[in-house]
Amino acid sequence: MKILFVPRTVEYIDPMNIELMSALARREGHTTYLSVMAQDDLEQDIKRVRPDIVALSCITGGVSHYLNAAEIAKKISPGIITVMGGPHCTFFPEVIENPHIDFVGSGECDDAWPNLLRAINSNGDVNAVMNIFTKENWFGRFKDAGEIGRRHHLAGRTINLDSLPFFDREIIYNHTHLGEFPMLSFMASRGCPFECPSCIEPKFNKIYAGKGPIFNRLSVSRLCEELKETVTRWPKQFVKFYDDLFFVKRGVDSWLEEFAEVYPREVGLPFFCLTRCNILTEEVLKLLIKAGLHSLTMSIEAGNDYVRNDVIKRHMTRQQILDAFGLCKKHGVVTFANSILGIPVKKEEMEKQGKTAMDYDIESLDTNIEAGVHFAEFGTAYPYPGCELTEYVTKNGWFSPVDFDKLHISYAAESPFNCFTPQEKLMQNNLAMLGTVCVAFPWMRNITVNHLIKWRLSKLYFLMYFLTKGYLNIFRVYPMKFTVKNLIKNLIRSLQFEWKKRAPGKNLYKKPKIQNTTTNQMLGGSSKI
């Protein structure tokens, strides 16, 4: 069968979900293609490729884009099978009720996806495939079954990650700018045991309770084998490990010790990874530096102790934050931190602390500056499905779940909560951009807090933010060398991506025409499902 994967856009992180699903499909003998909504002409691609299946991986905020793509496919050829998966479908499998969607994949679909393809190809019983919802089994068994009833339709988590094929990088690299981009993104593990309410992982862990390990890794040898093959075919300068957490416990474990020995010898590229302030130790940091660590991120999320620990449950002290970033400064590791603006706080708590909504956001800015963060990003709190934060804001009347479809694709957009005034939302948006500048240049803090965030100069602030972020990304956090031509191309492309995130509905560019080809990559990894 011919399968057309349709992402909304491809930025600078590999869409590893598509790369894995394409690899699994190709291992079953199918042919895979790609059509990027923001880049290609979907209608023409469907008419030219004539796919049997159109596959969509959806996140909340982008549902309408993917449903529209499914509708386009059905209008061109009603016989096309449309399959939707991704985080949104895990918590909202009722998207199967849409007339243009034939199958919905929920949860981990490493087995479900090839099993579905086999059932379709052989006219088997698609309704019996675990993790797959159909019109028939949904309305017949699961529509009113609730979360517990639907949970019985989920197979266990994948335990042996080494059994999965290498990512099909070719489907992305032959069709988008990532082929010539000098950074490679990869995930060495799955899962996170922490309970941050702004993340889907705690709910995901609840759904999968008793169905496999919360945190699971590739073996070091399997990890390095895939990385080595990839950078041999597509020369790269830097690796970004995009795991939720690169390690989850304080102290050195045997996997990290082996990684520090094998990775420099087999791959040898500088890398970036994610961790938490309250689990980083000097011993682990030294081991990672030995392996090739250049930069890492530790999210601060909120500067205020109450917001950080009681509302978003980070369970870490201010001193732990300062100590962790201090360790990185001591050992010359470049740091990146995420913080969340616009986290709602109950009125009685605000009165008790004598603070306004903006005071909390400014406290987050000041914590980043005091910690000596090199590059800070400030997003806006967003109520994604499955997150405890969503239950918190819904319970307090600040957001209605019926508005999920109205959310912007990016959390860099304006706050969706009704507890903030228009002026507060303006200040949050301004601080989200100027905060990055202030952390890089702390002398700007007072003029920003006292004046700039109150003014309607968002285009100017966007330019300041973009230039600061671009410099820090290319020369500090992910140091890479570009030719002048490629540097200009990537700056323009980055400008387009950032503008779309912060100015929803506005188009800054025309779609380039890129030829779509089938993939020929020889996929490594075990042949076992």
Give a written overview of the molecule.
The protein has 529 residues and is an alpha/beta fold. The chain folds into two domains: 2-161, Rossmann fold; 180-502, pyruvate-formate lyase- activating enzyme (Alpha-Beta Horseshoe). It is built from 21 helices and 14 strands. Mean pLDDT is 90; it is low at 504-518. Helix content is 43%, strand content 12%. It has helices spanning 16-27, 42-49, 63-76, 87-91, 112-121, 135-142, 146-151, 170-173, 201-207, 220-233, 254-266, 282-291, 305-311, 318-330, 347-353, 357-371, 388-395, 422-440, 445-450, 458-477, 484-502; strands spanning 2-5, 31-34, 53-57, 81-85, 103-105, 132-134, 183-186, 189-190, 216-217, 238-241, 271-275, 293-298, 334-341, 375-380. Strands 2-1-3-4-5-6 form a six-stranded mixed β-sheet, sandwiched between helices.
Counting helices, strands and paired strands, the structural category is alpha/beta
Estimate nothing, just give the exact number of structural domains. Answer: 2
Percent of residues in β-strands: 5-15%
Mean pLDDT: 90
| Helical residue percent band | 40-55%
Strands of the biggest beta sheet: in what spatial order? 2-1-3-4-5-6
Per CATH, the superfamily of the largest domain is tm_1862 like domain
The fold-level CATH name of the largest domain is: pyruvate-formate lyase- activating enzyme
Uncertain residue segments: 504-518
CATH class of the largest domain: Alpha Beta
For the CA atoms, what is the radius of gyration? 23 Å
Largest sheet: 6 strands, mixed
Number of helices, where a helix is a run of at least 4 consecutive DSSP H or I residues: 21
Distance between the termini: 19 Å
Shape: globular
CATH architecture level-2 label of the largest domain = Alpha-Beta Horseshoe
Query: Using DSSP, what is the number of strands?
Result: 14
